[in-house]
Amino acid sequence: MHHALLVPDILDHIFAFIKADSEQISHRTFAALARTCSALSDASLDALWSELRSLYPLVSCIYDTNMKLTNEDTSEVDADAGPDLSVFHKYAYRVRKLELSGYEGGWRATAVPDDLGVFHVLQVPTPLLPNLTHLAWTDELSLALLWPLLNPRLLSLRISSFQWSPKSTPLLLTRIRGLCPELNTLGLLFYLSEGYEAVAESCLSRVVCSWKKLEVLDYSPVGCECILSLSVLSSLRILRLRVDNISDLNLPANSLSFPSLHTLQFQANSLATANSILQAIRSLPKSIEIFLPVYQSGDVGVETVEPILYPIGQNASCANLEEFRMNVPAFLSGNIVNGSNVLRPSFPLLPPSCIAHNDDATIHARR
How many CB atoms lie within 10 A of CB 22? Predict the structure, then answer.
């Protein structure tokens, strides 16, 4: 092997080139390197196992290690001996990022709970992945199943599409904070049944704001308190809100201050809610993106977008804004009537540092 391959910068460049290929080919390449070059074996295994989309490859390691073939058709396991987890541990500590979607590539019928069940039955020590730093938990998987994967090294946690339970969810969310205190990126997107708003609002405000080092937050706020309490997050750089409330939000003007905020993105349930959020922002970030629901028909006039653009133009910090993007609801519903001419009178409401234009569905302005 050439000595140049031992230079970290050169090796990083080669591995980046391999990763740029398709996932299947890059995995095969790293596996081949690990088997054929002892000097590159550890680095290749790190690259091969650093990111997973399923727990099944790790479960498979346990199966392969403990199941012994007796002939071509049958296999057996020593029921008296404890499970051999050596191969599992060899690879588990290399995993840094895990994105669970419930199924492996859509072809395997065994779901995530089944894989976690194997670890539970075999009493595999937790946390299962001690060096995991990024975890995405999706497809309506129960929060209770998270526990074996949480660890103090976790920096990014995204939990989406789960159903709020009035009894278990507050308890589980509170405990998550204690198991991964160093989070800087958090996603909490869920479905809330009518009648539980007050309990959810109080719990979410307390739990989310307990992570003082948060830099990125992707969030479904239940009410005004859930948004107003976020001002304590002084390190927040990116804030994404999905406001699904039935009623409009009414936030006090200039009530939100985020000294480090660079990007604000939100999906609002109405023009009134969008206007309220923008009125509440004391100092505008460099980038704002707004998605409004498709709820109206007919022609679009200046009155459609002026309630959004006006508070931006009137904000004392409007010169900070470098990029603004907003969809126009009626355009998305198919009613495109000379959109550019209709919306252009509203462009002066944006700060002069932005150059504004629009296409069939959005207003887009950037410096």
Answer: 8
Judge if the upstream peptide bond of residue 130 is cis by omega within 30 degrees of 0.
no
CB atoms within 10 A of CB 353: 13
Distance CA 340, CA 350 (A): 16
Q: For residue 327, give the H/E element and its range.
A: strand 323-327
Counting Cβ atoms within 10 Å, is residue 144 exposed (0-12), middle (13-18) or buried (19+)? exposed
Residue 362: CB atoms within 10 Å: 20
Write out the two tokens for 182: 């160093």
Distance, CA of 224 to CA of 236 (rounded, Å): 18
| End-to-end CA gap in the chain | 50
Query: Which positions ≥6 away from 115 have C-beta within 8 Å?
Result: 54, 55, 56, 58, 59
Do residues 297 and 330 lie in contact, with contact meaning Cβ atoms separated by under 8 Å?
A: yes
For 105-138, the pLDDT digits (tens) are 554 434 788 888 889 988 999 999 999 999 998 7
CA proximity to 67, closest of 122, 13, 113, 117: 122
pLDDT digits 0-9 by tens, 62-93: 988 887 766 666 556 666 667 889 999 999 99
Task: Characterize 90-106 residue by residue with b for buried, 16 or more Cβ atoms within 10 angstroms of its Cβ, and e for exposed.
Answer: ebbebbbebebbebbee
Measured distance CA(152)–CA(180) in Å, rounded: 4
